[in-house]
Amino acid sequence: MAQVPQTFFDALAVRTWCGLALTALGRAREEIDAINVYPVADGDTGTNLYLTVESAATAVEAVFAGYEAGSGAGSGSVGRPSLADAARAMAHGALIGARGNSGTILAQLLRGMAQVLTAEGETPHTDGNGLSLALRHAADSARQAVAHPVEGTVLSVASAAADAAEDAEGDCGTVARAAYRGACAALAATPGQLAVLERAGVVDAGGRGLVAVLAALVETFTGEMPGLSGAAVSMSVSAAAVAAHGRVKAAQAADCAADGPGGARDEGGDGDEGGPAFEVIYLLEAEDTAVARLRRRLDALGDSLVVVGGDGLWNVHVHVDDAGAAVEAGVEAGRPYRIRITHFGVGDAHTRGGERPPRERVQRAVVAVVPGAGLAGLYTEAGATTVLARPGEPPASGELVEAVRRAHAREVVLLPNDADLRHTAAAAAEQARTEGIRVALIPTRSAVQGIAALAVHEPDRRFDEDVVSMTSAAGATRYAEVTVAERQSWTMAGICQAGDVLGLIDGDVAVIGSDVTAAAEAVLNRMLAAGGELVTLVLGDEAPEGVAERLEARVREAYLAVDTVVYRGGQQGALVLIGVE
């Protein structure tokens, strides 16, 4: 069915474009992953681009949902956000969800477009000329974000699209078509610009993803999805064919790296054998001056350095041998979080020892969503693959699918650890099953229920028996949290005001108070009144000093047969999490 075209750039056009781009990348993901040989042949560029756009689309949908919820009958409100609202949400969503080299660059491209679309002035940038200006600023800002730009990459494709858009005259549909044709031509030329692409017989994977995003832009404004044009068609064969061909060529790339451009690093490097072993990505809250120093330090540590963002929030991506030093540099610059460190597989062109066989799949793994870095460490020590959820920013289904893949197991137990993530986790489990992975979803509603499930996990017993045991342990664990109210609202315990301390038991407010320790003690007493054998306390960074000691003392005084364990959860949203088994 043809898409009803938009005539100019408004909030609905942003929403439509994000949705169509996500669909287009979903269709092309496996093909793009298969041709991913640069800068590291780790076969995840398509997935990274998909996750980046999924985060952008989710942010835009949230803005629309907020406006629609506030436009009740008789309110007189249109119930639709402005272009600035939607464009900023798109850029912010992409920034916080950006994955990998190409995903980080795509986030900067979207941010660059949003800066033009939301700029104040006498003439709004909502027509064809405005789209042309947005594409130009996007390409230029993305190039500036890369420490050592290399031609033959997504940067070249973005620049060509912007050049073609500047030469076009007409409405948004005309400009989008011109940009798309320019991108296709540049994509077809990438093997002639990068030796590693020519040896593998493929086009640049990041550039191929950008072409898909621009095709969605054309469909947004014309109602028709264009096909790959010109020589790009011959370079984008089926995913299956390229997968077999690309994997062989990727292994050969390390041996031939000396033929590549000397010193060309970052979007970068030619897949050299001696490349860094780790990819480090994190979000960073920092001032511009601190980020400038950070760029210089990270550039000296490794390659593939891309730092995007602004206004106090940045997404940092770099390939290094010393992952700890890269994180420490972020700590010196500001507050890093959502830290992801990936060791490149032994088959990647960027690592040594490419002759070793690929890693065998393990039989069973546990994938868990955790609300804080402290708990992530605890879960990881217990053998789980973790997905870190920042307060207010739950992971998308694609992020959970990626974690299931990263676990590299035939069987996976998925612990969402949040009642609101049940449907997201179910969608991720269904997607993973289509890839031949056996997935069991245990509907844990809190991280303390996940801890209980993980405690009885035995990978050597039958899968069904293990799932039943873990589900039983989670179900037998009551959970609570102590947090601070953000606004006035009605609750099961009465009306709370902004700033009140709330104690929630099994998701419902049971205690309203002014003191964190007193509220936590009241919650614990209510929970233990129904019995219990083990109390689990998880303290957030903002929990007051002495709260754990007071709760432990209360258990010793009043509940002699009950044991207590305490963990540090880090920046986890809730001040205290409580579990009673």
Automatic annotation (TrEMBL):
Residues 12-219 form the DhaL domain. Signal peptide: none annotated. It comes from the Bacteria. PROSITE patterns: DHAL. This is DAK2 domain fusion protein YloV.
